[in-house]
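EI: anyone free to look at a 312-residue chain?
SC: sure, send it
EI:
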Amino acid sequence: MIRVGTRESKLALFQTNSVLAKLKQAFPAQEFVTVPIKVHAEKDMKKPLFAFDTRGVFVKELEEALLNKEVDLVVHSLKDLPTDMIEGLTLASVLDREDPRDVLISHNKTSFLNLPKGATVASSSRRRLAQLKALRPDLSFTDIRGNIDTRLKKHADGACNAMVLAAAGLIRLNLMQHITEYFDTSVSLPAAGQAAIAVECRTDDKDVLAMCKAIENASVRGEITAERAFLNELGGGCSVPVGVLAREKDNMIDITGCVAALDGSKILRKSISGPVKDAQSMGVQLAHSLLEMGAEEILAELKTTIPSVSPP
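SC: here you go
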């Protein structure tokens, strides 16, 4: 029996069930059981994500369960998985990727450019808010926490005029009717690994590792290899205003990365292309290019800036 660890949110369970469907199809004789795991970050909904003094706020408890051999593999949203993998654990498989773009949800379906001056725009991502401030510095940007249903309710109840989420979660939960508009990646570049599903297991568990490899999407693996190399080289995580997107086609990868000042006053952006086999080195190369352009100074300023927080 293979024990599969997962968070308990609707989106996490949907993603886990997607992984299980592929595993059961590939290995029909194998028995799988889902093990729900509570995550501390989902209990403290008042604190912004970047303020948690811990590595991988949405994966910590799942990885502990793996290390303690309470489960055999765990399923993550790939963007939540830190690039500095814990010794003894490995990114075993990367599955299909949904639309990686960010989206706007607003009252009366008002577009981002048409939001009234001073309107409140909420997101849990400093990356999103930093990039959007560059386009509309006249808006009021704030933090918001909660799963998708909770955030939609907060918005409906008037906690904010609009909010920004990842398209992938809304699409997977069939909530596209709430989307006002999709942001072009030239406006809001997504987080590393956004919209991809990750499976993590113990490095020495060869049987489980082989099973995970059997359901992997090789094309997406190439994309996220470049993206995670870029993020890792910059020393960033899910709470920093760093965006990156790689796209694979015909064994070639186009990758674009950006680093944004929190106040939106400066955004450094660059794109490069190359063969998939060089995905890792391309991500590193792109990061070095942005550091030479001044990204290091922008990242250093993060330690002194704390965004406002919307009511829990």
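EI: Residues 47-55, 306-312 have pLDDT under 50 and may be disordered.
SC: 👍
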